UniProtKB/TrEMBL annotation:
Site location (Important for catalytic activity, responsible for pKa modulation of the active site Glu and correct orientation of both the proton donor and substrate): 177
Pathway: Glycan metabolism; L-arabinan degradation
Keywords recorded for this protein, A-Z: Glycosidase, Hydrolase, Signal
Name of this chain's protein: Arabinan endo-1,5-alpha-L-arabinosidase
Length: 364
């Protein structure tokens, strides 16, 4: 190739490269902004239907832990899956809908009582530790009790700190279903379950500052009659709201559990229902939720959890009537989730029965 031929070829290449770059620039100027295209769409709310966890999470306690996850805890139970009794099963979720089994809260059963199961845990975060208040009882126990355990992690293992009291020590029959609440720089434990004895009922006692003992067993305050159990107290605006369960919890499809509410301007009562009746008298309380054609025995609810939009949600257990028993014979108390609406400063669940349609879930 001669020098002239090379120079001509070079000019031709430069010309075509120039045209290609011009064309590319023009084409690019007509393209939509890719950054606009790549902006993520708004996250669609998760839809769900009940139950949100199965086969069993009875008497659920739900807490949002310091790691950002929700943890759920339930009564010791045999799920009928060949793994035997679970010593307070622990599950975990980010949205209250999709749950993963983490294990058990206890590796060994507390030793301060000779027989019984670990029932109705209430887990709370106190002074950078996780406290687990629990019942220790057999069915029909004449002297059940309440204890407390502690852990550094919400998943456990929890180390037992021992007994708080037995029924015969506090003078209240059926002392189960503990519920912790701090208010006005004081710590309280609420407890109690079904009984027709003269000293029956749900009571409150003040805890010591460390939460590991009771200040004075004689200073108990009666909150509700003995036709209630599974107390939960929720503070909202100027009221304290009492949530408690009535009826039978564990008779499979024949279970009659239901949740009723009352409210007070004082933590220690008196708690009055919507008709102004004091719940220290039997037969009172305003219905929040009861069984339906599909589900039996909705009850023993968790604390109320608010999502990022301020919507309140309640978790509780209920029994599917068409599949009410696990292989080991226990009632199949699945974990349920429903939204609470506030109407005239009273909590309301739609239709007063467990939700059973696909609907929008909580947003976090």
């Amino acid at each position: 190739m001669t020098i002239k031929q090379f120079q001509a070829l070079r000019k031709s290449v430069i010309h075509y490269v120039f045209l290609f770059l011009m064309f590319s620039a023009c084409s690019k100027s007509n393209e939509p902004d890719k950054k606009e295209e790549e902006k993520p769409l708004p996250t669609q709310p998760v839809q769900f239907n009940n139950p949100v966890f199965e086969p069993v999470l009875a008497d659920p306690s739900i807490i949002k832990a310091a790691d950002g996850w929700f943890y759920g805890y339930g009564t010791e139970d045999n799920w009928g899956d060949g793994q035997g009794n679970r010593l307070v099963p622990v599950i975990r979720s980010l949205d209250l809908i999709k749950w993963t089994v983490m294990g058990n809260a206890f590796t060994t059963k507390p030793q301060w009582k000779t027989d019984g199961g670990i029932w109705a845990p209430d887990v709370v975060f106190i002074d950078n530790k996780y406290y687990l208040y629990y019942s220790y009882s057999v069915w029909g126990d004449t002297n059940p009790g309440i204890g407390v355990a502690i852990a550094n992690s919400p998943a456990g293992p929890f180390v037992d700190k021992g007994k708080l009291f037995l029924s015969n020590e506090v003078g209240v029959p059926n002392t189960i279903d503990p519920f912790y609440l701090a208010d006005a720089d004081k710590k309280y434990l609420f407890f109690g379950s079904f009984s027709t004895a003269l000293n029956q009922g749900t009571y409150a006692l003040e805890l010591a500052d460390d939460g590991f003992s009771i200040k004075n067993l004689a200073n108990k305050v009666k909150i509700a009659a003995g036709d209630f159990e599974a107390v939960m107290i929720h503070k909202r605006k100027n009221y304290y709201y009492f949530f408690g369960s009535k009826g039978s919890c564990c008779n499979g499809s024949a279970s009659t559990y239901q949740v009723r509410v009352a409210r007070s301007t004082s933590l220690l009562g008196p708690y009055l229902d919507k008709d102004g009746r004091n719940i220290v008298e039997r037969g009172n309380g305003t219905l929040l939720i009861s069984g339906s054609d599909k589900y039996a025995g909705p009850g023993h609810n968790s604390r109320i959890i608010a999502d990022k939009n301020g919507v309140d949600w309640l978790l509780y257990h209920a029994i599917l009537k068409s599949n009410p028993i696990v292989p080991g014979g226990a009632s199949r108390r699945t974990l349920m989730l429903d939204k609470i609406n506030w109407v005239g400063d009273w909590p309301v669940i739609e239709n007063e029965i467990p939700g059973d349609i696909l609907r929008k879930g909580p947003e976090f």
